[in-house]
């Protein structure tokens, strides 16, 4: 069938149909990409604004624009007991569409300014937990002294990184695990002191290398003696790379080096019967991406760990039997819901915790048998829920049943959300669809603009007092003291683009979350891979890749 949103053809398999029949939901009318895009349009990860808490009136940092039509509370007030979401409970109106009534309820219930818990001196972080002394890191947990990074966990002193785990003192690194003092490197594991390297495991003191295993003191994939390595490295960094032009030339060379390096068709590690990319320790996951320790999941993205029987979910962890949901933690039977934690059997709900048997609820905690934030007896709840499902169903109803929340009702403008990262659109395209676009400017530090010196050795502490003008988007950004120190120590020029543009640059190093048919460029085996057929990278099947790496 063809997707109602993008008109692209997509397949509904017999395996898909078994899930839909078991859960009593209709077949989707959007393709997997458009379903993921719709969910992501409800997730603002990185855009921060200044507002006032609508309860205590203190200034706050939040993901909601000042003009957003929601009451927004600081962490203390939202988790406190000075407001009751049941007071705005509504009777269901069978003369109106469900989504209209739910949106009306959403605008009455206070929103949580940021999802940022158990953090110390890390106020400018979102979707985070357990961080200390961190600044502008997002979707990241248990880090210390990390800045300008995304999806990093248990790291320390890492700057401008993405998709890192258990690493220390890394700069501009992507997809690294258990690494130490690596710079501008990607797909590294158990490595230290590696610079401009790609696809390495167990390596130390390597420069400009790819595909090595358990190597030490290599330059351009050739072994050298320790003394020669240290001498050449000192010459390169002290005499050449501290200037922006020379550093950019090396980055361009490194980009070409990666293009010439054969790579596996997909990062599917310690898993079986899986299709997609970046799948680890999983089984029976089809068309899934960024999935860990999960089983029997389909069309799901950013599943952190321990998920079972989840279909069309994004950014979930420890969930079972969940469908069409976003940012759910510890759930059982969560469907068509967002930002719900440790719940069971809830549908079409938002920001509910420790609850069960909810339909169309917002902001509830330790509640049960509620519809539109109004409490019912169990039998009355069940009877009314069935009537609402019939009202929402396509046959004689509004056609809402089985659909995720419409993008036009998102609490966030499209260009503030993760959807813009993965499915970028311009203002004209967004407005033509009837979605929101943010023309406001995110909160930025005040002060005078200065130009960054070309050589890091010429940068003085005076740069900390001013804003830098991003050469790409024209917005201002700051240089932090700890950031300056680590760039100085490593003789690396400071970034001349803002954190948002750096984030987008990192995302371009990862493939889009779609699968394509192509063949192994060594043996000709048919592959399903996230590398589109027109991409220039050299792509091998698993067997051929291992032949050249081990």
What is the secondary structure topology, with strand pairs?
Layout: H1 14-23, H2 32-40, E1 49-52, E2 59-62, E3 72-73, H3 75-79, H4 98-106, E4 111-112, E5 116-117, E6 128-129, E7 135-138, E8 147-153, E9 162-165, E10 174-177, E11 186-189, E12 192-195, E13 198-201, E14 204-207, E15 216-219, E16 222-223, H5 226-241, H6 244-259, E17 263-264, E18 268-269, E19 276-280, E20 288-292, E21 301-303, E22 311-316, E23 323-326, E24 332-335, E25 344-347, E26 356-359, E27 368-371, E28 374-375, H7 378-392, H8 418-422, H9 427-432, E29 449-450, E30 467-469, E31 476-477, H10 481-489, H11 499-507, E32 516-519, E33 526-529, E34 539-540, H12 542-549
Parallel strand pairs: 3-4, 5-6, 7-8, 8-9, 9-10, 10-11, 11-13, 12-14, 14-15, 17-34, 18-19, 19-20, 20-21, 21-22, 22-23, 24-25, 25-26, 26-27, 29-30
Antiparallel strand pairs: 1-2, 15-16, 27-28, 30-31, 32-33
């Amino acid at each position: 069938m063809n997707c109602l949103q993008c008109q692209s053809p997509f397949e509904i398999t017999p395996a898909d149909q078994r899930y839909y029949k078991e859960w009593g939901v209709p077949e989707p009318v959007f393709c997997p990409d458009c379903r993921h895009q719709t969910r992501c349009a409800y997730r603002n990860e990185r855009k921060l604004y200044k507002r006032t808490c609508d309860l205590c009136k203190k200034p706050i940092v939040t993901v909601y624009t000042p003009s957003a039509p929601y009451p927004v509370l600081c962490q203390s007030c939202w988790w406190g007991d000075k407001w009751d979401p049941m007071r705005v409970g509504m009777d269901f109106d069978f003369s109106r569409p469900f989504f209209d009534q739910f949106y009306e309820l959403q605008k009455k219930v206070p929103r949580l300014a940021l999802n940022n818990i158990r953090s110390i001196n890390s106020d400018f972080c979102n979707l985070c937990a357990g961080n200390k002394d961190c600044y502008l890191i997002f979707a990241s947990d248990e880090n210390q002294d990390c800045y300008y990074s995304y999806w990093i966990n248990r790291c320390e002193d890492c700057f401008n990184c993405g998709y890192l785990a258990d690493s220390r003192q890394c700069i501009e690194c992507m997809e690294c695990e258990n690494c130490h003092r690596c710079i501008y490197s990607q797909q590294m594991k158990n490595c230290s002191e590696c610079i401009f390297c790609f696809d390495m495991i167990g390596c130390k003191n390597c420069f400009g290398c790819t595909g090595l295993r358990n190597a030490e003191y290599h330059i351009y994939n050739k072994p050298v003696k320790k003394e020669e390595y240290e001498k050449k490295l000192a010459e390169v960094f002290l005499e050449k790379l501290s200037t922006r032009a020379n550093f950019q030339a090396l980055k361009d060379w490194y980009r070409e080096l990666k293009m010439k390096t054969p790579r596996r068709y997909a990062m599917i590690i310690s898993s079986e019967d899986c299709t997609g990319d970046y799948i680890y320790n999983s089984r029976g996951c089809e068309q899934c991406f960024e999935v860990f320790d999960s089983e029997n999941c389909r069309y799901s993205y950013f599943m952190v760990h321990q998920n079972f029987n989840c279909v069309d979910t994004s950014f979930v962890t420890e969930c079972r039997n969940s469908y069409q949901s976003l940012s759910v933690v510890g759930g059982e039977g969560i469907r068509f819901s967002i930002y719900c934690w440790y719940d069971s059997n809830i549908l079409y709900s938002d920001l509910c915790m420790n609850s069960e048997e909810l339909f169309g609820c917002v902001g509830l905690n330790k509640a049960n048998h509620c519809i539109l934030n109004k409490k019912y007896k169990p039998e009355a709840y069940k009877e009314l829920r069935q009537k609402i499902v019939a009202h929402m169903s396509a046959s004689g109803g509004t056609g809402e049943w089985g659909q995720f929340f419409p993008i036009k009702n998102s609490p966030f403008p499209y260009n503030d959300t993760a959807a813009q990262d993965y499915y970028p659109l311009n203002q004209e395209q967004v407005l033509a669809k009837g979605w929101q676009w943010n023309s406001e400017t995110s909160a930025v530090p005040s002060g005078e603009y200065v130009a960054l010196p070309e050589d890091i050795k010429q940068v003085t502490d005076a740069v900390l007092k001013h804003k830098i003008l991003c050469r790409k988007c024209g917005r201002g950004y700051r240089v932090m003291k700890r950031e300056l120190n680590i760039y100085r120590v490593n003789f690396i020029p400071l970034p001349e683009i803002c954190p948002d543009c750096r984030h987008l640059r990192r995302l371009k190093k990862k493939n889009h979350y779609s699968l394509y048919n192509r063949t192994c460029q060594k043996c000709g085996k048919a592959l399903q891979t996230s590398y589109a057929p027109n991409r220039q990278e050299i792509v091998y099947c698993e067997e051929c890749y291992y032949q050249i790496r081990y």
